[in-house]
Amino acid sequence: MCKYMIKFAYSSGSLARMVKVIDDRTTAVRILVESLGGSLDAMYWDVQKSSSYAIAELPDAVSAVAAISAAAKTGAFLSVEADELLTEDQIHDALVLAKDASSVYYAPGRAAIEADPHLQDGEIDHSLT
Q1: Taking the mean position of all CA atoms in its chain, how far away is CA 86?
Q2: C-alpha dihedral, 105 to 109 to 115 to 119, nearest 10°
Q3: pLDDT in tens for each of the 129 residues of the chain?
Q4: pTM
Q5: Which of 62, 70, 72, 118 lies 20 to 30 angstroms, CA to CA, from 25?
Q6: Residue 81: beta bridge partners?
């Protein structure tokens, strides 16, 4: 399973309705996540941005998109976003892969740098802009 942080940015209308009738948003998000084969680890509220953050495990990116789409379709939010979270071991593995892959990837404009021996790697030829 993959770990995600899902951000729900509430509209002013949604906040007004929640003030009028207080309901349990954590349970609502838990039911949504579980319906997609996942589990909710925690729910947090950002007091200054009228947002909530769910930390959840979901089977894959398709399930994450389904979760944000189901929430967004209600029209209750300014935005709903999901970011995949990595553990320390996962970021380590990603950096090892990046180190290996960096030997085969070259930066855009490399041919221009190679064509002008006066330019150093990463330097911009401003005559081309």
Answers
A1: 11
A2: -100
A3: 999 999 999 999 998 998 999 889 999 999 999 999 999 999 999 988 889 999 999 999 999 999 999 999 999 999 999 999 999 999 999 999 998 887 787 778 777 767 766 666 555 556 555
A4: 0.76
A5: 62
A6: 7
Amino acid at 43: M
**Cα end-to-end span (Å), the chain:** 46
Complete domains list, the chain, with CATH: 2-86 (3.30.70.1060), 89-120 (no CATH)
**CA dist 61 → 13, 66, 67, 71 (Å):** 30, 9, 10, 15
Cβ proximity of 82 and 94 under 8 Å: no
Which residue's structure tokens are 């790697």? 121
Q: Which two tokens stand for residue 65?
A: 């998109």
